[in-house]
Amino acid sequence: MPAAVATETERNAWLRDPDVQRMLRVRDGDDAAFGELVEAYQDRLIGIFSHVMREPDAAEDLAQEVFLRVYRARSRYQPTAKFATWLFRIANNLASNRRRSMARRKEVHLKTTESGPLGPRPEEALAAEKSALMPGRQFDRQEMREIVREALESLNDRQKMAVLLNKFEHMSYVDIAAAMDLSVPAVKSLLTRARENLRVQLEPYL
Amino acid sequence: MSTSDSQQTEDLVAYLVAYLDGELNDDEASRVEETLTDQAPVRQDVEKLTRVWELLDLLPEPKASASFTERTLSAIRTQHAQTDADEADTRPMAGQRTQVWKARARRGALRIAGFLGLAVVGAAGFNGTFRRDTAQMDLLLNDLPVIERLDQYREAGSLEFLEALNDSGLLHGNADANNSGEDNSNAN
Fold first, then answer.
1. In this complex, is the C-beta atom of A188 within 8 Å of any C-beta atom belonging to chain B?
2. Residue B44: band (very low, low, confident or very high) from pLDDT cuts 50, 70, 90
3. For A118-206, CATH number?
4. Which of A140, B62, B83, B115 is 20 to 30 A away from residue A74, measured at CA?
5. Residue ranges of domains in chain A
6. Which of the four CATH numbers 1.10.1740.10, 3.40.1390.30, 3.50.30.30, 3.20.20.450 does domain A1-108 have?
7. A64, A195, A203 ranked by CB distance to B53: nearest
């Protein structure tokens, strides 16, 4: 397909996105449309941030900051992707910035590990080991929830974001790549390693 | 397990994950499905990946607090109002452009007037200085005869003596002789 036609097709796909249409109305001065976008995405953003940042207060602050940035950018808005892709790109950037500033302030919190030869941190390995000692025990929903949360925490930041966007936002590899400013093969690799890591962490509980 | 085996395993897992995510094209999906049909261990891996993925549904789904929407929209309205106020100072709205141009014209006219004023003051100052210097020149020209003979007059010693010589007419005679030719002092 010639490049010009493909670009036109893509543009039409974005324009068919109802949230892109809402954002275009915001650009043209319709503040009610912006309220609709806030209500449509607030829970989704807070959900992502709560898992990425592990701080409920930070999740709402960051979600609000995302909307502020969207609103500030309204006059320059030109749809080049689905609205959700653009929104979560802003969210991903904000989360990265917040993590960097938190690291600089040396706040004490449980840090995620980098996947690779170093493996899980000692405290995470101990938690996994303790659970592994009781393979036959039935875990209630709350306990399983905590185990799953810790398994998610064992992923590095990029793996975690890719998993959350894929799982809870049902984003394609192409959209995740756009949101995270990565190539599609990089996203594929991230998700492969993330899901394999999760399998290793959670297989004893299956 | 060798490196190549590890790579093959990772490649297989990548295909399985992409298959589960619906990211394979038709040919690739068909090949995975053939593998799943033929190889029980691969089917078990897919089963585990699927169940682990479903466990993520146990994660909590935090919702926005009741006041979040209103707080967010309020923050945006505040920022919007502040931005409008800031822009009003720096970038006038379309309706104020005429006033802005008038203000600019006034400022421009003041600048030009100031420049001209400086020029006038400068010229006046020059003129005053020129005139003062001209008057001084006139004085010097008037006193030139005295200035030319100042050394001789100093030899006289006092002004009263010079006045006496002048009254006696002796200076006039010398003056006439000087007017006809060479300096008498040189002749003598």
1. yes
2. very high
3. 1.10.10.10
4. B62
5. 1-108, 118-206
6. 1.10.1740.10
7. A195
Nearest residue to A78 via CA among A149, A121, A20: A20
> Token pair of A188, please?
């594929």
pLDDT for res B137: 64
Q: Compute, in degrees rounded to 10, the torsion defined by CA atoms A178, A181, A187, A190.
A: -140
ipTM: 0.80
Distinct helix (H) and strand (E) counts, chain B: 10, 0
**A52 in contact with B at a CB cutoff of 8 Å?**
no
The pTM of this model reads 0.65
What's the gap in Å between the CA of A17 and the closest CA on chain B? 21
Choice among A10-24, A76-90, A190-204, B159-173 with the minimum mean pLDDT: B159-173
Nearest residue to A165 via CA among A85, A79, A111, A55 = A85
B19 CA: distance to closest CA in chain A (Å): 11
Tokens for B167, please give them: 């009254």
Q: Which two tokens stand for residue B38?
A: 């033929």
Q: At residue B67, what are phi and psi to the nearest 5 degrees?
A: -95, 0
CB contact (8 A) between residue A46 and residue B10: no
Measuring CA to CA, how many Å separate B31 from each of A105, B6, B12, B36?
Answer: 50, 20, 11, 9
- The residue among A2 and B111 whose pLDDT is bigger is B111
> Is the pLDDT at A174 greater than 90, yes or no?
yes
Task: Nearest chain A residue to B70 by CA: give it.
Answer: A35
User: Which range (A31-45, A175-189, B75-89) has the least confidence?
Assistant: B75-89
Q: Averaged over A21-41, what is the pLDDT?
A: 96
Poorest-pLDDT segment among A77-81, B4-8, B32-36 = B4-8
Q: CB of A198 within 8 Å of any CB in chain B? A: yes
Which residues of chain B make contact with A34, given a CB cutoff of 8 A? 73, 76
